[in-house]
Structure formats: C-alpha cells, structure tokens
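Quick start: read one record
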Amino acid sequence: MSTDVGKAAVATRSGGAVALALAALSAGGFLATAIWVSSRVEVSPELHRVALFVHLAALVVGLGAVLVGDYSALLWLTGRASTAQMLRDIGRLHLPIWAGLAGLVGSGMLLEPQFEVFATRVKLALVAILLVNGIQAMALERRMVAAGPRLGVALVLRGAVTALVSQGCWWCAMWIGFTATQS
C-alpha cells in the first residue's frame, strides 16, 4: 500500500512539474508577444493615456493583492491567523494577482517602452522573474494545503523566499516605471 502512495506522489509531482513548465512557457510566450507587439504598434496619444490608466489600475489590483497575501502570511506568522485562514486568503488572491500582471503586461506594450534603455530591459527581466515566481507560488500554495495545518520549516522558508522575490520584483519594476516617466 505504501508503494502505491509513493507512486501517486511521484506521479503528482511529475504532473505538477509538467503543468508548471507549460505555465512558464505560456507566461514567457505572453511576455514575448507583448514585446513583439509593442515594437510594431503605433500608439496615438489617446490610446497612450488609456493604456497608462489601465497600467496604473492593474498595478493597484496586482500589487494590492500581493500585499494582502503577504499581510495574511504575517498574521499567520504572528499567530493571529490559522494556517487554513492564511492559505484560503492566499488561494483567493491568485486571480487578482494574475489579472494585475496581465493588465500590466498588456497595457505596458502600449506605453511605448524603450527597449534600448537598460532600465527597460531590467524591468522586463523583473517581470519575467515575477511570472515564474508566481507560477511556483501557486505550486507552493498547493503543497502547503496538502501539508495540512503544521507546515514544515522547508515550506515556510520557501514561502518567505517567494514573498521576498515577489516584493522585490514588484517594487523594483514599479520604481523603474516611475523613474522612466520622470525623464
């Protein structure tokens, strides 16, 4: 019986790895498409204004949801929320986080990015890291749910690293975008 459980765990992990790889490829394809489109589309001043509004709204939605998720994790770390509450909160936030990211990438391609500028390339790298980190964060959440109420040290550390990478990418990309509009 334990052999069957072990085989099921391996099958689930390898199926999860395939799903993660496909998600990463899709995210990479989405980002590559946005870059391609942005280099070929002529943007009117009106469309630029609309894209800027959508970009800012998507930032509020995406980063706002990330902050709520991290706040929920901090409540859990301080014993003010249960593991189940934290994971339920985080699970509900995937949609607004991904909607925010999609909105940022989609509207960003209409903001006439300057690809020859190093900061723009750094921002694109941060977005790519954020996409991959988000995909692995969803897998991490599933592992935490499966682990039950007592999360091991390895899962907690992986969660902390995931949160730090996420916060770093969001805030650095936002700073680059802000400074680009000031010049």
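Residues 1-12 have pLDDT under 50 and may be disordered.
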